[in-house]
Amino acid sequence: MNDAAHMARALELARQAVGAGETPIGCVVVDENGAMIAEGANAPIASHDPTAHAEIVALRKAGAALGNYRLKPGLTLYVTLEPCAMCAGAISHARIARLVYGASDPKGGGVAHGSRVFEQATCHWKPEVAGGVLAEESAAILREFFRPRR
C-alpha cells in the first residue's frame, strides 16, 4: 500500500477544508487493495455538527457505501492529524484494521497522546497504528491556517 499517496489525497481534502473555512484536516478510507472507499474533510462549522471531524465524515460515508456500521476487514484510514479521543473511539467501533496519520497532536490527540484510547482496557478493537506519514506537510497546513488566528 502506498501510504504517501493516500496521505497526499488526505492533504488535498485538508486544503479544500481551508477553502470552506474549516480546520484543515482530511481523511480517506481505502480497502486492502488500495481502492478508495470514502473520504472526508473537517466540516463541523458548515454542518453545524460538533462531531463532523474528517474521520467521522469519512467513516459515515464508508458505512453507507458498504452498508454496515462495522466496516469490512482490511480497511485503512488515513488522516492528516492524529485523531482525537472521539475519532479514535469511532475508528475502534468501525473495526478499522489500520490507522495512518500525519502530524502528531500533543494537545488534542487521543492515540499517541492524551487519553491513548487504543491502550485502554475498555477498547475492544485496536487498529495497527502508523504515525508521521507526510507529517511535516500535515503540520505545515495547520500552522498556516492557525497563524493569522492567533
Describe it.
The protein has helices spanning 3-19, 44-47, 54-66, 85-94, 135-146; strands at 26-30, 36-41, 76-81, 98-103, 128-131. With 150 residues, the chain is α/β, with parallel strands linked by helices. Strands 2-1-3-4-5 form a 5-stranded mixed beta sheet. α3 (54-66) packs parallel to α4 (85-94). The protein starts with a helix and ends with a helix.
Order of helices and strands: HEEHHEHEEH
Shape: globular
Query: Mind telling me the C-alpha Rg?
Result: 14 Å
Q: Overall pLDDT, averaged?
A: 96
How does the helix and strand content classify structurally?
alpha/beta
Strands side by side in the biggest sheet:
2-1-3-4-5
What oligomeric state best describes the polypeptide chains here?
single chain
Instruction: Please mark out the parts with pLDDT under 50 across 5 or more consecutive residues, or reply none.
Output: none
Question: Percent of residues in beta strands?
Answer: 15-25%
Main sheet record: 5 strands, mixed
Counted beta strands: 5
The helix count comes to 5
Helix coverage percent: 25-40%
Helix-strand blueprint:
Elements: H1 3-19, E1 26-30, E2 36-41, H2 44-47, H3 54-66, E3 76-81, H4 85-94, E4 98-103, E5 128-131, H5 135-146
Parallel strand pairs: 3-4, 4-5
Antiparallel strand pairs: 1-2, 1-3
Helix pairs in contact: 1-5, 3-4
What are its keywords?
single chain, 150 residues, alpha/beta, five-stranded mixed β-sheet, 5 helices, globular
Task: Give a short synopsis of this structure.
The protein is of the alpha/beta class and 150 residues long.
